[in-house]
Amino acid sequence: MRIVRIANFVAPNSGGIRTALRHWGEEYRARGHEVHLVIPEPGEPHELQSQGHVHHLPATPTGAGYSLMWARRPVARLLTELAPDRLEVHDRATLRWLGPWARRHGIPTMMLSHENMTGILVRRLHSPQGLAERTADFINRKSAKDYDRIVCPSHYAAAEWRRFGADARVVTLGVDLESFQPPAERSPLTPDGRERPEGQVQIVHCGRLSPEKNPGLTLGALRELVDRGVDAHLTVLGHGPMREELMESSADLPVTFHEYISGRQALAEVLGRADLAISPGPVETFGLAALEALACGVPVVCPDEGALSEVVGPAGAVAPSRPEAFADAALDVLGRGDLTDVARTQAERFNWEDSTSQMLAIHAELG
């Protein structure tokens, strides 16, 4: 089967979607399928990677770290040349036109809903909840009609489709359990590479530094802990448009903004030095960064909204999105003793082999 995937919100330093695409592509290839991925420049027009054929098309920078393929003609031309047996569209906004296009060409389609539109409208655009739900429902109803299958990474993500009766399937993401493992022994170093001070709590922030991820909550929780006399240090693992603003606002706090880490092994080593991870995104539809921390044996504090609680389970704590509540949750987790095995066991529930099997089963339903 020739499976073509296309995504717009993928960049060299982007996170979850890029990682998921790579792992699914590698698994598809391992099971004998021909796999293509169409994404924006930069990159060679065509290259063969471990995940299959990767095609980069001309794109326009947005100023938010992404470049988008706005022009439809080059996309349609390439897809026509590739003649897919199945088309996966990993974009619910800028590439929505591909559902009707593929139907006209007799190509079965699957749209991956990696974002919660209602949550983004509320959090990023400050829309009233009712208006956000009505707007999302209007757009989503059309997408549900235009695509053969809607697939979501969590029950939270699927809820906004199911509230008007759409048959949204849930396929959770996975984690590279080989690369992300608990360290064999406790490192003498902190996540930011310093010699580990005796008794200092090492916290890492997991997540992109953008408004919808609410990264300021992590810094607020750190400030609350420091005000309570807790000797804690935060290492921020994440980049995004709010980075400079957050660095300025936290200049008086014990925090390090880590440079971008590209390699999985290097990231796992840094994560494994932490005592606790904070993943504050209120509208996360999965939370791959939090899952990678769990796989390294690090418990996670996350909000009581969004999908992160589905991922974290018993390997951490869930709290309202307030600094004092997150500080309370952090102290609760730290007071439970060594949660390495609990975190690792929770992470092992999510693997790419099972995720891929579910994806291929849905593809098989399409003919």
The major sheet is characterized as: 8 strands, mixed
Mean pLDDT: 95
Terminal CA distance: 11 Å
> Which second-level CATH architecture of the largest domain applies?
3-Layer(aba) Sandwich
What is the string of helix and strand elements?
EHEEEEEHEHEHHEHEEHEHEHEHEHEHHH
CATH 4th-level superfamily of the largest domain: Glycogen Phosphorylase B
Give the spatial strand order of the biggest sheet. Answer: 3-4-2-1-7-8-9-10
Rounded to the nearest angstrom, the radius of gyration is 21 Å
CATH topology descriptor of the largest domain = Rossmann fold
Number of helices: 14
Shape: globular
Q: Please report which band the strand proportion falls in: under 5%, 5-15%, 15-25%, 25-35%, 35-45% or over 45%.
A: 15-25%
CATH class identity of the largest domain:
Alpha Beta
Number of domains: 2
Could you explain the architecture of this structure?
With 367 residues, this protein is an alpha/beta fold. It has two domains: 2-174 and 351-366, 3-Layer(aba) Sandwich (Rossmann fold); 201-349, Rossmann fold, CATH 3.40.50.2000. It is 38% helix and 18% strand. It has helices spanning 16-30, 72-82, 98-104, 117-123, 129-146, 155-162, 216-227, 243-249, 264-271, 288-295, 308-312, 323-334, 340-347, 352-365, and strands spanning 2-6, 34-40, 46-49, 52-57, 60-61, 67-68, 86-89, 109-112, 149-152, 168-170, 201-206, 232-237, 255-257, 276-278, 300-303, 316-319. The strands form three sheets. Strands 3-4-2-1-7-8-9-10 form an eight-stranded mixed beta sheet, with helices on both faces. It has a six-stranded parallel beta sheet with strand order 13-12-11-14-15-16, sandwiched between helices. The model has no long low-confidence stretch (mean pLDDT 95).
